[in-house]
Amino acid sequence: MPVDVDRNPGKIDNRPLAGIRVLDMTRVFSGPWGTQILGDLGADVIKIEQPGRGDDQRRLGPPFLMDDQGGLTSESSYYLSVNRNKRSVAVDIGTPEGQRTIQQLAAACDVFVENFKAGNLAKYGLDYSSIAAINPRIVYCSISGFGQTGPRRHQMGYDTVMQAMCGLMSVTGLPDGEPGGGPLKVGLVMSDMMAGTYAAMAILAALYARDTRNSEGQYIDISMFDAQLAAMSHQASHYLVSGEVPARFGNGAPSVSPSNAFSCSDGEIIIVAGNDMQFRRLCEVLCLAQLADDDRYRTNSARVTNRATLQQALETRLRMHTKAHWLATLERAGLVAGPIKTLAEALADPQAGAREIVRYVEHVSGGTVPLVASPMRMSATPLDRYTAPPTCGQHTEEVLRELLDLSRDETHIGRRQA
């Protein structure tokens, strides 16, 4: 198994955010997802963790990473997925010494990110006003369930609840009248991921504004609730324009037809015809040219209205051959179709290999850890460095000596033993 180490050992870091330092006081998923994006882009991300305990996400398993002897470590796959390219510093913010340490670190940073409950950090002197008084150029980002304003601002937010409250579950799954019908959760923590992604983009924009206008930093308020509602995009627009509450279509698309899973003789494939020309070509390939001239299917709007009968007509033909036969036939015709793969099959796809999606890096506990690489491909400032997610407090002495010029004995300040 090849280990993907730093591809530019001893050379200048050319990643776009090299030289930017981020103080990361986030836990679990939304915040770490956002700061990992910044770390991939080259920022020096300093992850603050509770001594002896660390990020709660470390314990969200199994599965856990194995060391080179085949034994289980304490690093969960959940934690590993969002904490690469960071340094971990263990500091107890419940002590005056720990609070002073964080304030001193903030003075040496460009960005401060936290996802505590709204207002909680004020009692530690680590809220925006306190940190900005120390470092006026700081870009301070708060990520919370419902934001810093509104009647729900003090409520905690978890992804499943956000998916339910923001309408995502209402448009996911089969219609009520079908077996297994009803609202369904998406299999990813979408509201966490959207909040973290929006946070990273907002931070980049704030840094650009600060540095191009020679101005001070600013405060960023990101909420999972806002982010998930924003991500409802065309479904939200559907309702706002028409007043109609969007329905569930299973694997189908609400405004494009055909776009669905179709049964072949040995299983299902996905077929999408995004315009009238593609639909006509699809009909010709399936030897169903008459459908393209049928008034019920001549236009996309008509096909959306008559999706059920069109689905039946296409599947009757598709069931005559295997998935492999139809996928090859449709590919030769330049049409859009694909197999429904497991994650194992997707990661083993030759395209994933060509794009170097999976990277293996050395882990301090022994052995290697597999990572899913950043999808950002940049020619002049490549994202070509990956370090393993750190163990709790792995870099405490290193960071405190480097940034605060503390001696080895002094680096234990504000670190209560577990």
Automatic annotation (TrEMBL):
One of its GO terms (molecular function) is CoA-transferase activity. SUPFAM superfamilies: CoA-transferase family III (CaiB/BaiF). Pfam families: CoA_transf_3. Keywords: Transferase. InterPro entries: CoA-transferase_III_domain, CoA-Trfase_fam_III, CoA-Trfase_III_dom3_sf, CoA-Trfase_III_dom_1_sf. PANTHER family: SUCCINATE--HYDROXYMETHYLGLUTARATE COA-TRANSFERASE. This is CoA transferase. It comes from Verticiella sediminum.
